[in-house]
Amino acid sequence: MCVRDEVLFFLFILRLRYAFVENIWFHCALSIVMGKNKWFYPIESMFYEALEFHKIANWKIQIMPPDVKTNLNALKKDEEKEWPFRTHNAKAVFVCYYCKRTWKSSFTTIVWRAQRSTSIVQLRIEKQGCQRCNRKCQGFLYDGEQAAFTLYWMCTWILDVFYGIRSEHTKKDDDDKSDEIDESAAPHDYQRCEAGKKNTCRKCNLHKQRRHSLHRN
Fold first, then answer.
1. What is the tens place of the pLDDT at every residue in 133-160?
2. 86 near 112, Cβ under 8 Å?
3. What whole-number distance in Å separates Cα of residue 68 and Cα of residue 107?
4. Burial 127-164 (b: 16+ CB within 10 A, else e)
5. Which of 36, 72, 107, 139 has its CA 20 to 30 A from that of 92?
6. CA torsion, points 18, 169, 167, 22, in degrees to nearest 10?
7. What pTM did the predictor assign?
8. In sequence order, what are the beta bridge partners of 192?
């Protein structure tokens, strides 16, 4: 079974259990400007179902504390202190709290890290800047399928890193990219991408590599 089939099967099981699973994102979109961390609740609600689906027990998920630095060098240093990390690409919607502008990004960077001694996973969706007012804005995953893909790869990563169970789908570091990542023509605001400034956005890193290559030639 390919990755997409496995993810869609997991999402199908969720829909059987919760007929409202897709409406979570609709209500999240309506309320995100009214409360902080609304983006996290749908992911948290599906996380424990994903653990059960992958037969993983006793893990917890939480929002990554604001004092945790997620630039690439800091993540690598924390990895040496028993906090392995992973970056993941997904499609997300961003809402500006200030001017109410909304936009969709196919190149949204999600960072998570985990600690085996506490069985805790910490998660952050990196912010992007609003093109209208330049404020940093929080995004939330586009729909249930994007959350299912994210949690599928998170659980696959947990099994690999902490239990030594390696999936046939995790042979390459970029295997967890969404379909849209391959659409190089899709727009991305490199100047306002927070993950790009931290060297964790794959789209921005590819753009930098291409520019560097052109300058060398």
1. 999 999 989 888 888 899 999 999 999 9
2. yes
3. 22
4. bbbbeeeeeebbbbbbbbbbbbbbbbbbbbbbbebeee
5. 72
6. -10
7. 0.83
8. none
